[in-house]
Amino acid sequence: MDDLDWTLLTLLDRERSISAIAQELFITQPALTYRVKKMESYFQARLFTRTKKGFLPTPVGELAIEYAKSMKKELKKVQEDIFSLEGKVKGKIYIGSSSAVAQYLLPDLLSKFNDLYPDIELNVVTGFSSSLVPLLYDGKIHVAFLREEIEWNHYKQLLSTEGIFLVSRSPIELEKLPSLSRLDYTTNPSLRGLLDGWWAQNFRVPPKVTMNVDTADTCKEMVRAGLGYTFLTELCLRSEQELCCVPLLNSAGVPLSRQTWLYGTEEAVNFIAVREFLAFISGVLG
Predict the structure, then answer these.
(1) pLDDT for residue 164
(2) What residue numbers bound the domain in which 48 lies?
(3) Are 137 and 43 found together in one domain?
(4) The predicted structure's pLDDT at residue 22
């Protein structure tokens, strides 16, 4: 058994398809099938059954997959420990990020960091906090850029606080919002709750939502086309000069805001590559 075998087992747990994995690993299907048979010989048991849905693990196969995952994790930790002991700024950093941060902040940040540390491999996964926080707790990502504060006992830093705005193509009066077309987009439950709370404080009738789209950027372009108004965070409005952007205020006259936090696992902070990354981000945004 070697690293390729462990990788193959973990991929089979995800893909269930030899052809898809062969394309991903740039290895022929017969070669991968042969490796599966060699692993079954190693464990002296059948690991997978072939079905119309692909390769499905047997009970023994499930155990082998868990073994492979643990071996991959241990190998990664040993490599990172060696780099840290030798003072080499290299290795892999697994980053989780909210979609907005990944779109508006990370490209420039990661490009500059890559210029400084070309031997560090950056792996990024995006999504809502609900999908990223479990990865952080499980140690599957080293750091996470989240658009909300969570209970966390390890590395945690507030990177920015930004306002939330009513966005329209032309000026509109707040009291007229219930009668106007509102455009909504898929967003984090925390922001949705904040906007719903603001609406409930100001109006007794529900908004007239005429369109739901997948991203804030799509929503912004719909607003630009004159199809209605929406609510966007400051991060989505950088360099925006054409649209009317009015900050939302709570009942006390305080602007509503959204925060961006950076989190790191206790284990990852001991790795030199992650330490350098956290120091870099802190120096630029902190």
Answers:
(1) 96
(2) 3-83
(3) no
(4) 79
- Count of structural domains within the chain: 2
Does 165 lie in the same domain as 78?
no
3-class DSSP string for the chain: CCHHHHHHHHHHHHHCCHHHHHHHHCCCHHHHHHHHHHHHHHHCCCCEEEECCEEEECHHHHHHHHHHHHHHHHHHHHHHHHHHHHCCCCEEEEEEECHHHHHHCHHHHHHHHHHHCCCEEEEEEECCHHHHHHHHHCCCCCEEEECCCCCCCCEEEEEEEEEEEEEECCCCCHHHHHHCEEEEECCCHHHHHHHHHHHHHHCCCCCEEEEEECCHHHHHHHHHCCCCEEEEEHHHHCCCCCCEEEECECCCCCECEEEEEEEECCCHHHCHHHHHHHHHHHHHHC
**Domain end position, chosen among 64, 83, 102:** 83
Q: What is the pLDDT of residue 88?
A: 66
List per-block mean pLDDT (blocks of 10 residues) for the chain, which spans 286 residues: 79 79 80 85 86 81 86 74 67 91 93 92 92 90 94 93 96 95 93 95 95 94 96 90 94 93 89 90 84
131: domain CATH number?
Answer: 3.40.190.290
Output the pLDDT for position 84: 64
Residues 47 and 78 in one domain: yes
pTM for the full model? Answer: 0.71
63 and 180 within one domain: no
Domain end among 44, 60, 83? 83
